[in-house]
Amino acid sequence: MDKLKLNILNLLKEDARHSAELLATMLGEDRAAVETAIAELEADKVIVKYATVVNWGKVDDDKVTALIEVQITPERGRGFDAIAERIYLYPEVKSVYLMSGAYDLLVEIEGTTLKEVASFVSSKLSSIDRVLSTKTHFILKKYKQDGVIFEDHEDDQRLLISP
């Protein structure tokens, strides 16, 4: 990938609202070249979505988010892909990652209640062939997401120690 496209991606990751004109100015490039590069990135599915990071803790919203560790037996000929696909097609599932270590997949889901999330795990996820075990972790509070700190933090309050 050329340097222009990488620079565009980095700037859009910081703020997806940047216009092609602003990106061109920031990069010292021609606007048409930036527009062409963005169109190619979208066509190649490098840019798949423009999104907003929301601090849901500041919204009167009762979402329950859980991270589920899933151990599975890979399928012959398709490995983990077939099972991951079966899982990510559920509308409750927000993300699925293939992991190294103690478990195979990390699944992020959202529900409206703890009971709804537990029901998803027990009735849908655990019942999939080749799923050996699950371990559910509920997110209690988000401090930082996608590089954005949600907390209003004060200056460092530690006492200075001098010799």
UniProtKB/TrEMBL annotation:
Name of one Pfam family that matches: AsnC_trans_reg
Superkingdom: Bacteria
SUPFAM superfamilies, A to Z: Dimeric alpha+beta barrel, Winged helix' DNA-binding domain
Provenance organism: Paenibacillus psychroresistens
Descriptive protein name: Lrp/AsnC family transcriptional regulator
Domain Transcription regulator AsnC/Lrp ligand binding as annotated: residue spans: 70-141
